[in-house]
Amino acid sequence: MRIQVFVLAVLLGIASGLPGQTPVVNTSLAGKATTSKSFTMPRTLDGHPDLQGTYDLATLTPIDRPAGQGQTMTSEEAKKREAGQQKRVAQGDAKIAGDRTAPPKGGDGSVGAAGNVGGYNYGWLDPGSSYNVVDGQIRTSLIIDPPDGRMPPYTPEAQKRIAAMRSRANSDATESNDPGLDKTPGAYDDPEARPLGEQCLLGFGSTSGPPMLPDYFYNNLHKIVQTGDSVMILTEMVHDVRVVRMNAQHLPSNIRRWLGDSVGHWEGDTLVIDTTNFTSKTRFRGSTENLHVVERFTRTGPKTLLYRFTIEDPATWARPWTGEMAWYATNGLIYEYACHEANYALGDILRGARERDREQGAAKAGK
Amino acid sequence: MSMSKPVTVAAILAIATLSVCSAQTTGYKPPRIAGKPDLNGIWQALSEANWDLEAHVARPAMALRPGPYGPVPAAPVLALGAVGAVPPSLGVVEGGEIPYLPEAVAQKKKNQENWLTLDPEIKCYLPGVPRATYMPYPFEIFQNATSMFIAYEYAGAARDIYLKDPGPAPVDSWMGQSVGHWEGDTLVVDVKGFNDQSWFDRAGNFHSDQLHVVERYTRTSADVISYEATIEDKAVFSRPWKISLPLYRRQEKNVQLMDFKCAEFVEELLYGKWRKKPLGN
């Protein structure tokens, strides 16, 4: 189990010391049917399916399928894993000794933000408590195509591009897979070199997307509001609003947007959203600005949507790939995620690096 | 500041404000969504309110320093020239002046004198309410039978207008917690749960965390919403006061909310000094 979690954490780019969640009642999988036979499609005033509501994307199902797993798991296995997760949460929420010693200088050397000097404890996190169920199947990955449930390999061109990026500053790295001060020259020199999440420009983990994905950490709510000519999708993290213009043309190619330019249309009862025109800074898993995302929303029950996304960027992947997940409605309210307003971290990270520069300079001078 | 304002300005202003308010009684019947007036669309204030809610003549700059013949732009904004000047207005405050408590007047003056370091807009902080409404950026209302939501271009600010009261706000926030209901053809939004960080304008007008705003949105023609906000804050003002101004529908066929993630634009201002190689002056 512990190995499993470690694999998941690494795959998802999450600090292995951090997985946990807020202590909520474990939702039984049986209660999360994604299709309902006696279900009548709710419709908006103009006759289209009503997709509106607030949805919680937190899930234990990872984006990429862990090695050695099939496409689905049995409910017994899911229950066992979910119980394990609950236990970890309970442990994480347990009281800690107030007189414990400080972590070792520079961290304990493990994977995690700044070598796990300590960050959030479990009570702050909400990475999901159950697995995602689609078509009555308990899924082991969001990715369904390729059939192995894993992102296709990078093209040689993309491998080179991503390697070059990682050897310099790492402004697309998540906080948790940041390799640290020594391994990425320049990464702490300027605010622009820091991850977009640290700059409060986008939520980390493609929460705002598109594709809009769980971050396996916290703040996974989204809200949908439909009007006659648009669909508004609010992402909780960094309060990002996407306005999908219905039956509209894409912007000229010289107008680039952080979340891309989204236009939508209905195919039967499915909302199809086509997104292009991303900025060159909005890198989804190393993509270029030519990333093309097609999303499909279908209401499958009174409390569930099916969300499907297809990713295309020939300069990064030789073939398109597709994932899907159920979005579960929640009665929870979305509170303000005022990131930039209280962003002490970004300045302190740079100040810390300058302080280290000064110490190293002094040490050199003293030799 | 407001104590020393000539009475005549207030009088002129009262007349000007009255004429704005009277727009509500035109008898216009707006198109409807589920029986309620349709407020959907992209709107923007055409107003100097964000520079200074109160009546004012034009000023050389937001930040001033004494010159031999009167105030001149302070050094940090000097290079902006006329672009940095403050456009004049008869103001949007009903009755002309904001009724500050005596001790709050001093804070307002201090805010104005230290505008460059204190105005949250300079740092791209969330604008609060009502300031979000009359900033010089468009905003979009998303409305249907069950939802009311406002997205603002400035800083990507967003507000869910709850049509069912969820109870007291669990935590203070920049944009507050908004609860809306209809009074006839007017959308009334009650906003509470603010922190004390946002301002009302670039002139240092401010509030505490006891701020309570009641907004009224009334469509008065195909392309105009009459907007009023009553502002109450016992820690700062001696009585509730009201602003009113029209909001206009953006007419461009291709208009849409664009990205204005200004957090990116203020990184040099906020963090430039901690670059490995500061850019210098």
What do these coordinates show?
- The complex is a heterodimer of chains A (367) and B (281).
- Helix content of chain A is 17%, strand content 20%.
- Chain A contains four helices and 13 strands.
- Chain A has a nine-stranded mixed barrel with strand order 1-6-7-8-9-10-11-12-13. In chain A, strands 2-4-3 form a three-stranded antiparallel beta sheet.
- In chain A, a hairpin with a 4-residue loop joins strand 7 (230-235) and strand 8.
- Residues 1-34 of chain A have low confidence and may be disordered.
- Chain B is of the alpha+beta class.
- Chain B has a domain at 31-48 and 100-274: Beta Barrel (Lipocalin).
- Chain B contains five helices and 13 strands.
- In chain B, strand 9 and strand 10 form a beta hairpin.
- The two termini of chain B are 34 Å apart.
- Residues 1-23 of chain B have low confidence and may be disordered.
- The chains are: A alpha+beta (367), B alpha+beta (281).
- At the A-B interface, strand 6, strand 7, strand 8 and helix 4 of A face strand 6, strand 8 and helix 5 of B.
Key features of this structure:
heterodimer; A: 367 residues; alpha+beta; 9-stranded mixed β-barrel; 13 strands; B: alpha+beta; Lipocalin; 9-stranded mixed barrel; 14% helix; disordered N terminus
Offer a quick outline of the entry.
The complex is a heterodimer of chains A (about 375) and B (about 280). With about 375 residues, chain A is an alpha+beta fold.
Share in β-strands of chain B:
25-35%
Structural classification of chain B: alpha+beta
User: Tally the helices of chain A: what do you get?
Assistant: 4
Q: Helix proportion of residues of chain A, in percent?
A: 10-25%
| Fraction of residues in H or I helices of chain B | 10-25%
Number of strands of chain A: 13
- Which residues of chain B sit in consecutive blocks of at least 5 with pLDDT less than 50? 1-23
User: Under CATH, the topology of the domain at 31-48 and 100-274 in chain B is which?
Assistant: Lipocalin
Q: What characteristic shape of chain A results from the CA principal axes? A: globular
Task: Specify Rg of chain A, calculated over alpha carbons.
Answer: 21 Å
Spell the H/E element sequence of chain A: HEEHEEEHEEEEEEEEH
Number of helices of chain B: 5
Please state the average pLDDT score of chain B: 92
What CATH architecture of the domain at 31-48 and 100-274 in chain B do you see?
A: Beta Barrel
Strands of the biggest beta sheet of chain B: in what spatial order?
3-6-7-8-9-10-11-12-13
* Average pLDDT of chain A: 84
What is the approximate shape of chain B?
A: globular
For the largest beta-sheet of chain A, the strand count, sense and barrel status come to: 9 strands, mixed, barrel
Low-confidence stretches of chain A: 1-34
Distance between the termini of chain A: 49 Å
Write down the secondary-structure element order of chain B. HEEEEEHHHEEEEEEEEH
